[in-house]
Design a protein that fits this description.
mainly alpha, globular
Length: about 300
């Protein structure tokens, strides 16, 4: 009984926390720029992609829904401390702290070598995202003012482009972060288990859209022009490309949270540079996000040390 209960509890906490933390960062600009559209329609679009993507991955990988991201982390029988870790993650998410679910969840299952690889890849992701975003938005600002209203005749095209880029980003994110949930399951699962996972994640996603994203959504909504459909489309596209590059680079899990925060950091600095804004007005916002990320990493390290002492 306990052998079935603990994995279920782990998935319950991990699935809720991962979708309310990382997924909001992926779908945040989509929600911010589509407030006039009912949350049910937005949820249906996102949940459809989630179901199709996970089912496709399950079929292609012989029952593995982690898309090969757990190749270096073998399955181990779930203990109480494994299930407790995502509970901590859920608490931090409710507090609005954008912690890395990859570090906090996978670190207690991985070896020190794998954890080091995840950390290096995530730090590199943050740096590349920040630098790429800074250069890209400086170039973009030279030929486009994102704050100017999109002409009426162009709105439908930008809206269509946004839904396409968001779908692409959502698909890419799922192939990255499903590992944070699938780690509580055997590496190959049956069709009945797949259906249960899909139903549960779809329900959690519905609550996320209904609540408007919760505390984590503030990280998106406080940034420049993120509620504009054109800006949201561009952010999602750049984010998706960066994630895709790292996905193809290696199967070592990485923090998509760090990539996202780095992207927004570089973008804010570029906008401030181009429009000659005082950096001291932007720095507190960027520093606050970075501090939250570091807090998440610190919690992850503490959890790893605690779990190591319990093994």
């Amino acid at each position: 009984m306990i052998e079935t209960l603990l994995p279920a509890i782990g998935i319950l906490f991990a699935g809720t926390a991962v979708l309310n933390n990382d997924a909001v960062q992926t779908l945040g600009t989509f929600m911010a720029s589509n407030k006039k559209i009912s949350w049910q329609k937005l949820w249906f679009a996102a949940s459809s992609i989630l179901v199709i993507t996970i089912t496709w991955g399950w079929y292609q990988n012989g029952g593995d829904i982690s898309f090969g991201r757990l190749d270096t982390i073998p399955y181990v029988p779930i203990q109480w401390f494994h299930a407790a870790v995502p509970a901590v993650l859920l608490i931090l998410t409710r507090m609005g702290i954008p912690v890395s679910t990859t570090f906090l969840v996978l670190s207690v299952f991985s070896t020190a070598v794998v954890f080091e690889k995840m950390l290096i890849k995530s730090m590199l992701g943050y740096a590349i995202a920040a630098c790429s975003a800074y250069g890209f938005w400086l170039l973009l600002a030279s030929c486009m003012d994102e704050k100017k209203k999109v002409p009426k005749e162009q709105k439908k095209y930008w809206r269509f482009a946004q839904w396409i880029t968001t779908g692409f980003l959502w698909f890419t994110w799922i192939t990255h972060d499903m590992a944070n949930i699938a780690v509580f399951l055997p590496r190959q699962i049956g069709f009945e288990t797949l259906l249960c996972v899909l139903a549960f994640l779809s329900i959690v996603l519905a609550f996320m859209f209904r609540s408007g994203g919760g505390k984590i959504q503030e990280i998106v909504s406080k940034k420049s022009s993120t509620s504009y459909v054109r800006s949201a489309t561009i952010i999602d596209f750049v984010y998706a490309i960066i994630l895709l590059i790292f996905k193809e680079w290696s199967n070592v899990p990485m923090s998509t949270t760090w990539v996202f925060v780095g992207l927004l950091c570089g973008r804010e600095l570029a906008i401030a540079t181009w429009y000659n804004r005082k950096i001291k007005r932007v720095f507190p916002l960027i520093a606050r996000d970075f501090l939250k990320v570091m807090m998440g990493l610190a919690v992850s390290v503490v959890m790893v040390l605690v779990v190591s002492s319990l093994k």
